[in-house]
């Protein structure tokens, strides 16, 4: 059973997220929070596998809450809920180590897929979020869109063929175990490949590597399912 905490200051959003997650018998919502500080305290108390946090909340925002959760309860993985127009916040959360990013107006199935992915140790980017991150980086002086994509392809080309294959699966939201089953290797081998990929791409976490995968265009058109 995947234990989940939901944090959002809007009751209707919390109710909607809870209703979607309730359709999966393998997911249990164990607590709800109305602000970032409350979310941190409830995570410490319940120690859920996944915390679904709104980026903008009173008290401390979702990014600050995610940082505290990562520091005090590192076993809890964080998914950020975002709306259009919050691209700067997404980049901050990405740098802070959030494992997943979803748009509030996205498809319900994406929420379940994202929760399951990060609970199993993967990074999950909604395709719309990934596209916005890439475009936003280009629009804020980090290079033209075409330039960033070209640079990402060059970075990926420097990886071994196996590492490129692993990166594509990582960008598609698969966990180490799922990648291992796809490639018919032991999970420890995939873990070693992921560590090498992060080092060679110069990124700190799987979500950041997933952004590079999206920039380079190596992610499958549809997110692979477990």
Could you explain how this protein is built, in words?
With 226 residues, the protein is an alpha/beta fold. It has helices at 11-22, 36-46, 62-72, 87-95, 108-119, 127-139, 145-157, 161-171, 176-183, 187-201, 206-216, and strands at 2-7, 27-33, 50-54, 77-82, 100-103, 124-125. It has a 6-stranded parallel beta sheet, with helices on both faces. Helix 4 (87-95) links the parallel strand 4 (77-82) and strand 5. The longest helix is centred in the C-terminal third of the chain and has 15 residues, at 187-201. Mean pLDDT is 85; it is low at 222-226. Residues 152-217 form the HTH luxR-type domain. It comes from Streptomyces aurantiogriseus.
Brief overview:
Pfam families: GerE, Response_reg. One of its GO terms (molecular function) is DNA binding. By secondary structure, this protein is α/β, with parallel strands linked by helices.
């Amino acid at each position: 059973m995947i234990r989940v905490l939901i944090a959002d200051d809007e009751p209707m959003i919390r109710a909607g997220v809870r209703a979607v997650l309730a359709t999966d018998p393998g997911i249990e919502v164990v607590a709800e929070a109305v602000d970032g500080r409350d979310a941190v305290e409830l995570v410490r108390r319940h120690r859920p596998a996944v915390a679904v946090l709104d980026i903008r909340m009173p008290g401390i925002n979702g990014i600050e809450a995610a940082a505290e959760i990562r520091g005090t309860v590192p076993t809890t993985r964080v998914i950020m809920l975002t709306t259009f127009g919050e691209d700067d916040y997404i980049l901050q959360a990405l740098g802070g180590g959030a494992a997943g990013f979803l748009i509030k107006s996205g498809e319900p199935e994406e929420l379940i897929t994202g929760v399951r992915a990060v609970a199993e140790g993967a990074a999950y980017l909604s395709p719309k979020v990934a596209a916005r991150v890439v475009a936003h980086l280009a629009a804020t002086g980090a290079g033209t869109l075409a330039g960033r994509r070209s640079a990402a392809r060059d970075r990926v080309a420097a990886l071994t063929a196996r590492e490129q294959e692993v990166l594509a699966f990582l960008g598609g939201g698969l966990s180490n175990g799922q990648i291992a089953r796809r490639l018919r290797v032991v999970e420890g081998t995939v873990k070693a490949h992921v560590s090498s990929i992060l080092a060679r791409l110069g990124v700190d976490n799987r979500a950041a590597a997933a952004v590079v995968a999206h920039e380079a265009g190596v992610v499958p058109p549809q997110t692979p399912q477990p």
